[in-house]
């Protein structure tokens, strides 16, 4: 019997990462100056869209706060590797049945213990249909989960003792432990259940920070967090707190950083993308992040099914000069895609067989398009749908122009005025063109970029793609208890995607951020959010 | 006078009902499902969409939603935003901020606009008049976001005279720069309006009479010319005050002022009907109130004006 100890492996990985980092540091610069342990770090954010309940938060405004005030079973380090936070161990021998042990004596800030109950109750609440939680689908692989009826208690979750619970999945999924750092899986204290609305307004967590008293969330303005002295996990804050200021525009946040009112920002306005790296020389980042962008060509579009469809999709992919678009339109703040996932994910490879379909080659594109025309002559116009309120017009027009020039066809963007209208057209399948899409990884795993989007009938399979071979490989990959073996299956699955091209990969987003002179040790994580707890700030001198 | 006020207040009721209905209908008719948009680029299962819709009564037909909303208002319940906060609370935190900003802007444009307009009007054709004609033309032609960005960059970032954006609680000193920016929009109009009005009043019979009566210019200008010239200016200021309460969206965004404009903008983006309609309702109320106030002010400025019983 093979027992997999995720926790141990992860800690070893993290240690290796730390060694590599410190090696770097000694060669290039002296150790970072000690910060003031009481200094408050200020950063940008946005008003959370939903109450601050872990299972009801699915956007970055609220996510950034939850990640700071809660501690899940694991957390992701800067590289996206999982490290045990509240978990003592997560064990399985078949990738389907998990035994989770929690570290002893962990407490919420109100004194409630972090125990098996605090996880199981929160997950049950999040999964139950009647509670209409936005992140409910994260629990759908647990046995007992259903969207057809309200299930108040998942049969797959069992409390064994105070600090132990077991999880039974519907089928083997080896990356289940990797998901447990996502906010939907955070524990909730017993006190919350008396009045969940009040909890959503003044959440009580167990993370490195906590709310600075009742009413610390000043709606539309800011939320003030202070260090949680009772937190014993590995994400100890070296500063005294974190003030997250809500901005309606990224320009205002950038101006505040320039004006010295903010310490760190993790978004750069379009107007400063070309200049921020010189404005903040040595104090900025432009690094890959777990966001994959593409446009989907639904199977139902005329000329895009079967053999003809494959040829046309490959032709379109070859006709796009990704490097040019990322350089010119995005000032280098996107990286041309080489696969369907993201370079920050463990197992990422640039050289998956078939990935050369992403190389720009106008002649090849014309050739393939002509072959497709031999099957059935092309007519009409190729359009890419997008929402006009999200700054997409620039690149859509550029890509459409490349298609026009390189394939000799009529191509254009098809704007929808608002994001809501655009997503509604996609969800109810009334959209009759190709359309842009972006996928931000919920957790750092290859399968998260593949399963939910391309498996037959999967939730976000907006193009209704279906390939039984692909489905089988994803399932096999998830069933592998050996991480490496799983990765191999996922890569094979991507080979199929390169052939079928249900979506045309475009580029990976990068995290763009900058920080002020007074702060140090700023490191951006795999999801583009700085690891706030690591940031040091000089004692206020000026 | 009292009867006049009562009649005006009663007139406000159908106006209010009509506007809330129209706005609610427009938000309802906005294409796209706000619940779908809540999930970003990810597609939730239909059952979850259904459950969330039910929570916000979005599964009901329009008229039911509207009546639920209207019924709530009479009970003092303006509904809740998606983030679970009562809209009445959002109103209570944002309106004072915007009110402060608008009053500061009105004050600035009144003091400078009327003073400069008066001097220009009295010295028609002089060098002062000509130079401010140029200045006001420039200001009229500049869009507000250009003025805002330039002011922010020069006075806040480069010179450091002001905070770049409004700090915690949006205190008065942080609102000076945004108020000046806001004031520039209407400043030019007020200068031109005052100037024209002063020139016209200056030629009136009663001014000549006052002068031939032996009154000094020092007395004639403020009492006879300025006071009588202010009627069109005050009317304009009232309309402008409404615009400032409503239209400060751009300025509030650039200076990150947690006021009405910024919040409303976000609510529109998120299709939050309850928030949008409640905000607009309060705005309509303010507009009606300010207009009533102005109509009453006319009598103070010009004793010839009387209100019918």
Automatic annotation (TrEMBL), chain A:
GO terms for cellular component: ATP-binding cassette (ABC) transporter complex; periplasmic space. One of its GO terms (biological process) is peptide transport. Keywords: Signal. Residues 82-459 form the Solute-binding protein family domain. One of its GO terms (molecular function) is peptide transmembrane transporter activity. Pfam families: SBP_bac_5. Gene3D superfamilies: Dipeptide-binding Protein, Domain 1, Dipeptide-binding Protein, Domain 3, Periplasmic binding protein-like II. InterPro entries: Peptide/Ni-bd, SBP_5, SBP_5_dom. Residues 1-20 form the signal peptide. This is ABC transporter substrate-binding protein. It comes from Agromyces tardus.
UniProtKB/TrEMBL annotation, chain B:
Its main location: membrane. The chain crosses the membrane at residues 12-30, 101-120, 132-155, 175-194, 233-255, 275-301. It comes from Agromyces tardus. One of its GO terms (biological process) is transmembrane transport. The lineage of its organism: Bacteria, Bacillati, Actinomycetota, Actinomycetes, Micrococcales. Pfam families: BPD_transp_1, BPD_transp_1_N. Belongs to the binding-protein-dependent transport system permease family. Keywords: Cell membrane, Membrane, Transmembrane, Transmembrane helix, Transport. It is found in: Cell membrane. Residues 95-298 form the ABC transmembrane type-1 domain. GO terms for cellular component: plasma membrane. This is ABC transporter permease. It is a multi-pass membrane protein.
């Amino acid at each position: 019997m093979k027992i997999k100890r995720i926790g141990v492996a992860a800690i070893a990985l993290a240690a290796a990462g730390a060694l590599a980092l410190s090696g770097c540091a000694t060669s290039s610069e002296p150790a970072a100056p000690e910060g003031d342990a009481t200094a408050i770090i200020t950063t940008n954010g946005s008003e959370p869209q939903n109450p601050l309940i872990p299972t009801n938060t699915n956007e970055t405004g609220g996510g950034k706060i939850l990640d700071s005030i809660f501690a899940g079973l694991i957390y992701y380090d800067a590289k996206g590797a999982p490290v045990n936070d509240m978990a003592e161990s997560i064990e399985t021998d078949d990738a389907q049945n998990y035994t989770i042990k929690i570290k002893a004596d962990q407490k919420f800030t109100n004194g409630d213990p972090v125990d098996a109950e605090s996880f199981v109750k929160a997950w049950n609440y999040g999964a139950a249909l009647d509670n209409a939680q936005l992140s409910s689908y994260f629990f759908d692989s647990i046995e007992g989960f259903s969207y057809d009826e309200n299930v108040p208690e998942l049969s797959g979750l069992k409390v064994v003792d105070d600090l132990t619970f077991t999880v039974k999945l519907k089928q083997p999924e080896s990356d289940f432990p990797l998901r447990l750092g996502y906010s939907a899986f955070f524990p909730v204290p017993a006190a919350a259940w008396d009045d969940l609305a009040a909890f959503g307004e003044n959440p009580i967590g167990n993370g490195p920070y906590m709310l600075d008293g009742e009413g610390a969330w000043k709606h539309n303005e800011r939320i003030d967090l202070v260090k949680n002295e009772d937190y014993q996990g590995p994400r100890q804050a070296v500063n005294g707190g974190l003030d997250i200021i809500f901005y309606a525009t990224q320009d205002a946040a950038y101006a505040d950083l320039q004006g010295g009112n903010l310490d760190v920002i993790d978004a750069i306005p379009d107007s400063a993308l070309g200049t921020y790296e010189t404005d903040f020389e040595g104090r900025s980042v432009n690094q890959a992040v777990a966001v994959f962008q593409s446009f989907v060509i639904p199977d139902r579009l005329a000329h895009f099914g079967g053999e003809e469809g494959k040829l046309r999709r490959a032709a379109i992919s070859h006709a796009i000069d990704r490097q040019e678009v990322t350089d010119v339109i995005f000032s280098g703040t996107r990286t041309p895609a080489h696969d369907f996932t993201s370079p920050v994910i463990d197992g990422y490879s640039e050289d998956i067989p078939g990935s050369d379909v992403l190389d720009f080659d106008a002649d090849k594109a014309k050739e393939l398009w002509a072959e497709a025309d031999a099957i059935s002559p092309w007519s009409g116009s190729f359009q890419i749908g997008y929402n006009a309120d999200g700054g997409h017009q620039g690149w859509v027009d550029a890509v459409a122009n490349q298609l026009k020039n390189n394939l000799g066809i009529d191509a254009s963007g098809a704007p929808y005025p608002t994001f809501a209208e655009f997503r509604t057209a996609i969800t109810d399948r009334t959209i009759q063109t190709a359309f842009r899409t972006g996928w931000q990884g919920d957790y750092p795993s290859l399968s998260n970029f593949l399963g939910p989007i391309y498996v037959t009938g999967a939730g976000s399979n907006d193009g209704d793609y279906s390939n039984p071979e692909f489905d089988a490989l994803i399932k096999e990959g998830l069933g592998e208890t050996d991480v490496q073996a799983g990765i191999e299956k996922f890569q094979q699955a991507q080979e199929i995607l390169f052939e079928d091209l249900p979506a045309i990969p475009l580029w990976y987003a990068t995290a763009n951020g900058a920080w002020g002179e007074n702060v140090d040790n700023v490191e951006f994580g795999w999801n583009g959010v700085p690891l706030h707890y690591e940031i040091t700030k000089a004692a206020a001198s000026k | 006078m009292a009867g006049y006020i009562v009649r005006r207040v009663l007139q406000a009721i159908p106006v209010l009902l009509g506007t809330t209905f129209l706005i609610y209908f427009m938000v309802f008719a906005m294409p796209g499902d706000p619940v779908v948009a809540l999930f970003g680029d990810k597609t939730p299962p239909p059952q979850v969409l259904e459950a969330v819709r039910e929570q916000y009564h979005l599964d009901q037909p329009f008229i039911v939603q509207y009546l639920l909303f209207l019924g709530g208002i009479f009970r003092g319940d303006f509904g809740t935003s998606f983030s679970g906060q009562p809209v009445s609370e959002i109103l209570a935190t944002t309106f004072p901020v915007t009110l402060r900003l608008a009053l500061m802007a009105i004050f600035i444009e009144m003091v400078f606009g009327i003073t400069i307009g008066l001097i220009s009007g009295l010295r028609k054709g002089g060098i002062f008049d000509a130079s401010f004609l140029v200045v006001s033309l420039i200001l009229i032609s500049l869009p507000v976001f250009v003025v805002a960005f330039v002011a922010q960059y020069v006075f806040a970032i480069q010179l450091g005279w002001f905070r770049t954006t409004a700090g915690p609680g949006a205190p008065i000193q942080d609102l000076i720069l945004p108020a000046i920016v806001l004031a520039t929009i209407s400043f030019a109009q007020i200068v031109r309006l005052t100037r024209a009005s002063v020139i016209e009043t200056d030629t009136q019979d009663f001014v000549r009479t006052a002068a031939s009566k032996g009154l000094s210019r020092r007395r004639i200008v403020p009492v006879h010319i300025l006071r009588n010239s202010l009627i069109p200016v005050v009317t304009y200021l009232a309309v402008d005050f409404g615009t400032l309460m409503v239209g400060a969206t751009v300025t509030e965004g650039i200076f990150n002022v947690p006021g009405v404009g910024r919040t409303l903008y976000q609510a529109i983006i998120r299709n939050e009907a309850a928030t949008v309609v409640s905000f607009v309702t309060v705005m309509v109320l303010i507009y009606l109130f300010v207009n009533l106030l102005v109509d009453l002010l006319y009598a103070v400025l010009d004793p010839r004006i009387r209100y019918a019983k």
